[in-house]
Structures are given as C-alpha cells and as structure tokens.
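We store chain and fold; thus.
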Amino acid sequence: MFTGLVETTGELCARERRGPGFRLRVTCSLGGLALGESIAVSGACLTVIAHDDTGFDADVSLETAAKTTLGRLPIGTRVNLERSLQVGDRLGGHLVTGHVDGVARVRSVETIGDAWRVTLEPPHELSRFVAPKGSVSLDGTSLTVNGVSGDGFDVMLIPHTRQVTNLSRLAPGVELNMEVDLVARYVLRYLDVQSASPDARLRETLERSGFIRS
C-alpha cells in the first residue's frame, strides 16, 4: 500500500526481456533497500529482486507490461519512486495500491499562473471511476480531480509537484499509468452487483430503515 506521495525519482537505465515480461534496472538514491520489498515505480507496485548502492532490479510480469507503460518507456526515462507505507506513517495523499488500471493520455497542458492544468483522456472503461474532487493516481502521484468533461478529466499541478516528480515532462500525447480511487472501485462494483436485483435492494433498505418488517 502506498500514499501517492512520490519519495524520489530514479532513471530507467536497462530493460531486459524475460519470457513474456521484463527485468528493469532503476538507478536511484533510495537507501536501505531490502530484498523482496515493494516499491511503486511510476505507480506500479514492483518487488525488489536485487539492489546495491546505485539502485535496484525488479521484474515486470506480462499483466503489468500490458497495463502500464513500463514495457515501452525509453531507456533513460525518469520514473517516480515510493516505498510502501508503514503502519503509523502519515497518509498525506490517498490510499494507492500500486495496481495500475490502465494508461491515460495527456490531451493538453495549459499554464495558469504558476500552475499547470493538465487534461487527460483515460481508457473509456475507467472514466466512470473519475469524479470531480475525487482522487486519482497518475504515474504514482496522488492528485485531485479538478473537473470532468465527457470521458476526459483535468488536474492541477503546482510547481512543487512538478519539481519532485517526473510530471514536469508532460505534453500532449504523453502516457501516464493510472490507478482509480480505491473507494470508487468498490462502491461502483457494489452498485453493479446490486443493480441486478433493484427490488431486493430497495426492500433491504426499507427494512433497515424500519418501514417494513421481514
């Protein structure tokens, strides 16, 4: 589990094909890494399989390669890094699992004062999980949805966020790993299941409210 508050950035310096997946080498300044620990690499939860003073190695499965940008990022790309949340840590962003849902594409970047308004197009099937003032993780960065229009949505990036993450590179066409809000995921799943039997759901609600007795 992560918070979406990027700890530092690293550089993707190597990618080696391993069967249907890949092995990545990331150089970074993270110290005290442990074999087997989880690190969110641009939003995707990966396991450290080797490490030294200059960085770490991690494997990318076929599913992760299909759902994220990690299988096609150019070597030398800056990636966001966050170690997993520890019990007792401050939760300054929102709950992020590191299970990327899909890839969103940047439509436009507009300068407003010292901030950027970034408009994105998510995969169609994910747009229903995005709501104004809700949360979304983009390349592992916790952001607040500023507005929603059709299948698109926009976020505001303050200078600090651009300085400490890889989001300073944003331009039309850039792809970002997207994870929808955990609460939205489960609420909509519940409603999808319940919608199959609306009469039963209504009766249950009325019973709980004391209007009818079972």
Observations:
- The longest strand covers residues 8-18.
- The chain has a mean pLDDT of 90.
- The domain at 8-83 is CATH 2.40.30.20 (Elongation Factor Tu (Ef-tu); domain 3).
- The chain has two domains: 8-83, 102-188.
